[in-house]
## 1
Amino acid sequence: MFRLLPAFLLLSTFSAPASANLEGDALYALRRAVKDPNGVLESWDPTLVDPCTWFHATCDTDNRVTRLDLGHVGLSGSLVPQLGDLSNLQYLEVYANSLTGVIPPAIGKLKNLINLDLYENQLSGTIPPSLGNLGSLRFLRLSSNKLIGKVPAEILQLVSRLGSSLLV
């Protein structure tokens, strides 16, 4: 039994994911999900290890993505759930594009998010209650979309607790 333990440890070391760059993978998933007629995402190359070198992405001193500035750049297509993997993201600015589909509930995993600007797109469906988990959120702008239903109670509670600005 003791002889199997080192072999098990060795095998478990090799079972790690092939891509350790979860943030780069998340951003590249977004690039694949949108049409980019103006070529603003051309620098988002999955063969480059560091997404901090990509245009419209800003990183902190630890090379973690903290900001996406994609407002008014002509994108169409949909947001991807992988955006929820950008754990240090503070600003998600994708306003005034032609994005369609739903707001991914996975965005509710972004605990450091301060600003979520999705206004002036063509997003549809309901507002995910998971956005109420965004404890650092100060600004939530969802106006001028095709969203239906009421603002979830979780988000209203967040607004009252944090004094956030909500424009739906």
Note: Residues 78 and 95 are 13 Å apart (CA to CA).
## 2
Amino acid sequence: MIGAATAALALGVALSACSPTFDWRTVMNNDKGYTVDFPAKPGNDQRAVQIGGTPMQMAMQTAEAGNAVFAVGTVMLPDDSDATQRAALDFLRAGLARNVGATPDAHPAQIPLAAGGKIPGLEMTVSGAAGAKHETRTVYARLVARGRHVYQAAIIADQPLPQEQVDQFFSSFQLY
């Protein structure tokens, strides 16, 4: 009897260890023009932002897994001028850094296109204290403008994530 109970307990532990924290699934957002792998079923949200004094909407798809939030935000710009795109990229870069009290340091990155090729964007990783409790957060982000859209693919985590999880998310982020 004790042997059967021990075997059942061991099987339960083994099965629970097999349940993935990251259940990756490809999400195609045809309305916003991107595809990305999320580690869980994403939810949708929208919020108003002011970029350069102009009110705009930011659509968000977010999923939580492994003590992290994975998100893709899309801002629809009033035009596709270089100045408008730069202002939106600067706004997003500064906002991400400000959320954790860090310097908005970013470096160039190549963002893949679903049809092949790449376009220039920005990549940043910042850490610092966030929220009322000043808890440490790490933010990984890629920012890119394409036409009248500006995109923010970001991961916000309680602690640094394994590189393979970061790579899975960002390597799957492709624009149409």
Note: The radius of gyration is 19 Å.
## 3
Amino acid sequence: ACVVLLLLAAIAAIVGLAIALGLQLHAPATHNWTGFLCNDRVTCIPASQVCDGTANCRNGEDEQEKLCGDLPRSLPAYLVFHCGNPEYWVYADQRCNGMNDCGDCSDEMGSLAACPPCGPAWWSCSPVHYEYCSCVPRALCRDGVQHCVSWSDEYLCRP
């Protein structure tokens, strides 16, 4: 907490000095590999909140025409995941989220997605039915609904 307060004090001092000297502080929007960093250099929003019709950055730079005018080509490459079917794409934060966002599971399986194996909160079975690809949330284990083709989510999985 002390480090954060010192950092904030230093930033405030720099901004105050820049204002006193009449300098304009404007940094272009950038990224931190996990989302979209707003121009304030503090607010980071998930990729899927860029060009969603709601201004999530204070100055609305996540909804600017130059960024959202020709989706997905106008987006920086780090915000986009191209599905196995070249006609489809999803936001980068939808890759490896356990859901079949591409429709062909290419955002969850295979070398393009490069997803880690199922974590402890998930049950691994492939293929699965419906919206999941290879991992089913353990909360769905033994719920009386078949999620794995093998039925392993009903007979072997423990919530």
Note: The chain has one domain: 2-116.
